[in-house]
Design goal:
Aldehyde Dehydrogenase, Chain A, domain 2, 2 domains, disordered N terminus, 434 residues, seven-stranded parallel beta sheet, Aldehyde Dehydrogenase, Chain A, domain 1, alpha/beta, homodimer, 16 strands, four-stranded parallel beta sheet
């Protein structure tokens, strides 16, 4: 979808004459702004969030009008109705964006939090204090609301952000970013704390990715090819979120009614997202009791099933699954199914075919739950709950900029705290080292 | 120093015929071992640490004999006496290495710790559990004890480690690694949890740095050129520790006797390390009272001073400081000195010339201390204490694999916890998302 969504639609923005110089200037302004923003109070940042929400409500009609330009261009370029729907801003959607800003204002201030402290035998008080990462380079391909979500999370966590959105939302992104920047000015924060890259020239991304002296982290959000490109070219750390090939494993000791509810929810509640289930594993001891009924329910929801031979003995309508099926993130109403001989086989299957994103076990067996959560190496491992819960809001982070499939720095949903670093602040009374 | 220490000394180990294949095999074995090691108990890992300590004591004579080979080769190659001294193993040094292993065994088990939890309104218990990073590629240039330090920290934190030491310590590193690997076998842990790269061919590093599917983090420890090379070539995250251009700032409200003690300790207690002070900033209001006496004490300790004009008015023996002096990590008994007009000027100077490593203020003024700790953007910012405290042991981490000057993942001293990641483990009772 990402590649389609990035098709060349609408007017191309002329690239600045010297991309290298342009990107350096943008990054250098961001770094200046980040230093000021790091010292801003939570009150100032929350004023900005609330003022931005007000401006979005006040100017909803104008924003919708601008957005129509993007939608018309997308239609002319032949984008699918689904993609155009994702692109479209409406009064309810703008209201949701405004409410999102207000919700982020209500979250606790992350910067300056002393989250760890030790008093050493010599009396030194050693503390760790949360500080912003600095400058975030955020590259995205999706809906215009992401412009506001990303900017609000970055600024609330004290980071300056360089936004590089997809060209299909170019006009909408510009209007929303201008509004956020205006609100920065009104509330006395550095206007360069939010910058939207003025060109959709893809080469600009490469230039930004070289500037590790100015940019502290690159966060790509979009299709696999975008993320792989950013990961390959970046000279600074990257926070990636790759595919979710997520599993529901129905254990021998599962409550089968619970298993069915969790399976249906994991697969069908929103099939197009990364934490939706793509594969079902069923212990052979319960396959005969579980699969016929579960298969019926799934098919009633319009889910196409692709199963192993043992699966197809219980669900004749299922097509045969290939090796490739078990590795595939369908993002659609399709589910691969496999009957396994044991918990160990389920765990091995998840290790081989999964993407270390989100996996759940349904069981009432304590040792099975313990083994599954211990040995499955995924960002989120659940017991008796839907995979769809792997989400910043659902986990209590308030909001998220993405779900990291990395192990470094942050794993799973990334909210305000995951956009911070820390420093050691040490208070002494004249201590020297002997 | 790093470049000198890496001079071609001793016998060159023949590179395996196919470096790409060799490095892939090493990394693949490490990844297998990491999966097993992640499930090992703290007891097993501690047994390995203690057994390794015993073996080091039992075989100290043999280890010293092997080490003599490295030292003789280093002499023949004309390495300085100081470098050869760093290389040399002795009974007391081996005893210190053995004790280090036992101390790491006494540290709390990091893997499996539930360090964060929330109960959500729907009853979901959301926890974060500490897990190993996976495979660490550790490249170092220094003394043979680092082989043991790095392996012990990596394995205790559940990580498999690929060690690539400097060629000057080749024989000693091999003997120590063999001993650690033997102890892995004895205690039932995977022998591939510790691997020492069999070639000192520098090209091998480049091959390892491409293997981001197998290696989770690269940690270079050595001179700037090594670290820059690893950072530039790595396709996986890198934990870097760059120069320490560390400052002591003597504020207008400083207790001048305390300031002198902290300054002398920061500069002279061990001048060759990254957290030693390289630059002194003095508020103009106390320059006349502080500098003559401090200069005298420093010179009595053999410290060469390089100062600004105002400094030289109070310490005529000081040589004029150049711009370059203020950026230099001397790692020697040399100190740059500057008189500043204000706290703000001191902070700006540290931002421009410092390396964001370790900086201390000496003051009794609460608001000055607060401003300094808030605005100085360094891994460790201290008040009324020596810069030399920025150290894993001194901060209570038990031991450290290095001091990170990065902002991502870990900043400052990196101990066992900094060698871990986490996963979300979520316990439900059948919850689905609505």
């Amino acid at each position: 979808m990402a590649d389609t969504a990035s098709m060349n639609v609408g007017l191309e923005v002329a690239a600045p004459a010297d991309l290298a110089e342009y990107t350096r200037q943008v990054a250098s302004r961001a770094k200046q702004a980040a230093r000021q923003l790091a010292m801003a109070t939570g009150g100032q940042k929350n004023d900005w969030l609330k003022r931005s929400a007000e401006l979005i409500r006040e100017r909803s009609k104008a924003l919708i009008k601008v957005n129509e330009g993007d939608c018309t261009a997308a239609q002319a370029a032949g984008l699918s109705a689904a993609l155009i729907d994702r692109l479209r801003l409406s009064e309810p959607r703008l209201e949701a964006i405004a409410r999102g800003l207000e919700q982020i204002a209500e979250l606790p201030e992350p910067v300056g939090e002393v989250f760890d402290s030790t008093v050493r035998p010599n009396g030194l008080l050693v503390t760790r204090v949360r500080v912003p990462l600095g400058v975030v380079f955020f590259v995205y391909e999706s809906r215009p609301n992401v412009t506001v979500d990303a900017a609000s999370l970055c600024v609330k966590s004290g980071n300056a952000v360089i936004l590089r959105g997809g060209k299909e939302a170019r006009l909408s992104n510009r209007a929303l970013a201008d509004l956020l920047i205006e609100a920065l000015g009104i509330t006395g924060l550095p206007r360069d704390a939010v910058q939207l890259v003025d060109t959709t020239d893809r080469e600009a991304i490469g230039h930004f990715l070289k500037l590790h002296d100015q940019i502290d982290v690159a966060i790509p959000r979009g299709g696999r090819s975008l993320i792989e490109r950013v990961a390959a070219e970046a000279t600074m750390p990257v926070l990636k979120h790759f595919d979710g090939v997520c599993h529901v494993y129905v254990d021998a000791a599962a409550d089968l009614a619970m298993a069915e509810a969790i399976l249906i929810n994991s697969k069908c509640q929103r099939p197009g997202v990364c934490n939706a289930a793509e594969s079902l594993l069923v212990h052979r001891d319960v396959a005969a009791r579980f699969l016929p009924q579960a298969g019926k329910s799934l098919r009633a929801k319009g889910v196409e099933l692709r199963g192993c031979e043992r699966t197809r003995a219980f669900i004749p309508e299922a097509r045969p699954a290939t090796e490739e099926d078990y590795r595939t993130e369908y993002l659609d109403l399709i589910l691969s199914v496999k009957v396994v001989d044991s918990l160990a086989q389920a765990i091995d299957h998840i290790e081989i075919y999964g993407s270390h994103h989100t996996d759940t076990i349904v069981t009432n067996d304590l040792s099975a739950a313990r083994e599954f959560t211990g040995r499955v190496d995924s960002a989120a491992v659940l017991v008796n709950a839907s995979t769809r819960f792997n989400d910043g809001g659902e986990f209590g982070l308030g909001a998220e900029i993405g779900i990291s499939t990395d192990r470094f720095h942050a794993r799973g949903p990334c909210g305000l705290k995951e956009l911070t670093s820390y420093k050691y602040v040490v208070h002494g009374t004249g201590q020297v080292r002997s």
